[in-house]
Each structure stands twice: as C-alpha cells, then as structure tokens.
Amino acid sequence: MLAKQYMSLGLMREEVLTITGLTRHDLYYQPTGRKVGKQATHWTLFKDPVTQLLTRRSNEEVVTGIISILADKDLPNWYRLVSATLQVRGWYINHKKVYRLEQENGLLCKARKRKGRNFVQYRRVCPQGPLRIIEMDIKYVWVAGKSCYAYVLTILDTFTRFALHWAVGYVMKQEQIKDAWDQVIVKYLQPADLLKAQISVEIRNDNGKQFCSKMVQQYFRDNHLNQVFTHPYTPEENGHVESFHKTLGSSLKGAYFHTLKDLENRLNKFYQTYNNHRQHSSIAMLSPSMFWALWEDNQIEMETFDKKKARFKLRLSLQDVLSWKEIHRYDCSFG
Question: What is the helix (H) or strand (E) element at residue 301, kind and residue range?
Fold first, then answer.
C-alpha cells in the first residue's frame, strides 16, 4: 500500500493520512475475504400513520422525503435528525441508511466549522526555547466554607515548566484572562523582545468559554500572539498544564479551605515552591527557575528525539547549581 511505503520512508502517520486522504480504519483494515457485508436494500418499510398498514416503499420515495425535509429551512438538515424526522413520519430507517442515501444523491450537508478559531496542529510539542509555546487552563478547587468551587487559572511555559502567572476567584471571566496576560506580557514577553526576533509565540488553551470570547481572541491578535485551541476531548494537546494541575491537585488533597483567602494563601506558597524549589524530571532534575537561568547561561544541553521529544543534560553537577552566578534571577514571589 502506498501509505505504508510513505511511512517506511519516515513520514509520520498523520502526515501520510493527510496526503493520501485515508482514514486510520482504511490504513489498518486487512480484509480476510471470508465474510461478506450485508447488502444494501432497494426498499424501505413504511407504516401509514392513518391505516397502520405496513408496506415496502422504494428508496426513491425516501429520497423524495429527504429532499422535502432539507428544502424546509425550519427543519433540521443533520442526517441523524433527518432520520428521526422520517421515523416520526412512519419510515423504518436508521441514520446510517439516511447518510448513504444522502451521499449517493449529493444531499449530504457539509459539516459545520467553528468560525474564528485556530486548532492545534500537533498533539505533542517540543519548543526550542522559553516563551515559545505557553499553555493556560483552569482548575476547580472546592472551598468548603462557602460550599462552592473556586477557579484557578494557570499560565505555564512549556519549555521551562515555569508558572508565569496564576489567578483565583469564584468566577473566571474574560476580563480576568486579559488582566492576567497583561502581567505576563509586561513581566516576561516584552523584556524577551521575541517580536523583534521574529519568534512566534503560541498560546494553547481548551475551548472554555472564557478563552473563546471574541474579546480574548482579539486581545491576542492585537498583541501578536498566536492563540490555538485544543480539539474536544484531547487533554494531551494541553498536556503540560494538565500535568501541572494534577501536581497541584495532589498538593491540595485533603486540605480544608474556609474562605477564598485561605485558598489564595495556600496557592501562593505552592506556586513559589513549584517555581523555585521543586525539582522536575523532564528539565534535568532542576526547578523551573533554575533551569531557565542555566539555559540562558548555556549550561543545559538539549537533545531532540523522534515524536517531538527532548532530553536535557546539565553541564554542571547538581552540587554546583546553587553557587552558580545569578541562579536566582527567575525566583518568583507572587502576590
């Protein structure tokens, strides 16, 4: 098969499927020749709503009924709902047959596309430096004293694993997202001057209503930041911050928060410890702030593997890290 020849030459599977127009099922299905699928019928059962008489009708009559439904703008045009409409009218037909008949007669409606959103191209990312790919997400934390959830927003740099900013509140609206990014831009992005270096900054987030708002999307465009959305039900596309929130959840497990201020104080301690002191296995066993400083000082070696994986090696010994000049330049103090 042509697709497997491409894969043997080193092309990724998703690229091959895009080039050949195949699905994963087409790629891996191996026919045995032993079982023949059920043949399509040229008729459909119909029960007259008045006489209750059950008869066989030709598929051409079904197609006529489908056309009448699609012609009425007040009726649904999705094939599953079209099949439900036909069933209510007396036809014994399922959505698969409706789909086939619509496809054979050129009646199938194109899938609706979400406007105004760019979706991620790669599930696994391997940024080549700090502030190239930044992820943000919201975690829910229970405040027992108020019997409600609080929203915790985290903005995380995927290269250094450094938490650039966090915010907490009983609500998390688009204005709060904008305010958080104002601080990230002023504190980190503007000093790095990535725009002058022609480095595109990608912002990854899920499809939460706060992130999808027109104001937030326009805000990122105005600041020359490339906002991309993860596909539904694919948390791995935002995997760094999802993993971070799992760590956060483990640290908060069993804790009782009477007020939002109690939670805020606990979060302030966690984020400072995480950035400044917590070692991370994926960044050469260093804390994010130490890793960032040593990377800038060319004391970290980076080796890239297949499937967008990277491994880092520290040129110093871990015992010499704390004595390195300006090792604490990125130590953070929130609040």
Answer: strand 300-305
